[in-house]
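Morning. Coffee machine broken again, so started the prediction first thing and wrote up yesterday's gels while waiting. Chain of 270 residues, entered below exactly as on the submission form.
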Amino acid sequence: MVLEVAGFTIVDDGLLGMGLVRAIVAEIIGTAFLVYLGCGGVAGACLANGDATTAAAKVLYLSLAFGIGIGAVVHMFSDISGGQLNPAVSFGLFFARKLSLIKTLIFSVCQIVGGIVGAGVLKISIPGNLTAEITGEGVFPGTVAVHEDLSAGQGFLYEFMGTLILVITVLATTNGGRGHGSNYLQPLSIGLAIFVIHLVVAPFTGSGINPARSLASNIFSESGISGDFFVYIFGPLLASLVGGLLYEFFFSPHYNKAHQKLNGQEMDDI
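Came back before lunch.
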């Protein structure tokens, strides 16, 4: 049974097949890998050279960990679940009419579960005394927080803009109308986008740009999910709404018209 409302798919076929089961497992494992590699990179950046490590070098280190790590994980699972690994990406695909609402919700829950699993494995991997040396007492590597000199609104804007760039990158690289092999370009493009986003956003908010990743790291930190944490949920989700609708209704028609024009020229030549 397929249910659509105003062109948006709410329920689609395939909810009881093995394909969805594989996709669910892929999203759980993939998001666990994302958190383990990314937050593990933060731990490595802080531990690598101690006080000799400059702030810029740490940002570069963790940006590479997240960018290359996520690119690799997307490549692992892009043919199974799309390698979404992020509720904001999943909702962006829904608003761009590429994914049903029910699958968006299912994948988002799986991503949150996977993120917590990945953070839990990382926490077990690092002794408590070493964690205190790396990031401070009670602070989990990769914990996100708005910089003390920024307002919550400014932190929200950083998270919104970073996620918006990510969502549009995903939609652009998975657009079959552009005539490229999206499955192979997608991991590289997403990895590079996340790398650059972290270079810009990480010094100010920790660069959550993924509610599942932000929840996973902060659940294991004493700071928890209180205070300004709402910016890490609503900033990315607003970006998924804006990015999905913008790409689907403003940019995609360009490729649809180009495709129709090409088909018309080909028909004239026959």
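The beta strands are 3-5, 8-11. Going to sketch it on the whiteboard this afternoon.
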